Amino acid sequence: xxxxxxxxxxxxxxxxxxxxxxxxxxxxxxxxxxxxxxxxxxxxxxxxxxxxxxxxxxxxxxxxxxxxxxxxxxxxxx
Length: 78
Description:
Blueprint: E1 2-4, E2 7-11, E3 17-20, H1 30-40, H2 47-61
Antiparallel strand pairs: 1-2, 2-3
Helix pairs in contact: 1-2
């Protein structure tokens, strides 16, 4: 995953690049995480809170995922 002032980009094995317009998840809990983030996206303003909720949902509902969830925010303009 590449995040910069131009956007969010998911890089794949064969040099494919997918531009992400709102949020993204990868791994075995991706479907659960994406569903949780979709449900919260228009209701919450904090991207870190949305991402954390997606990861927590995956950790709780997907058997191959688990806690703890650790999330950090980085200021890209610093």
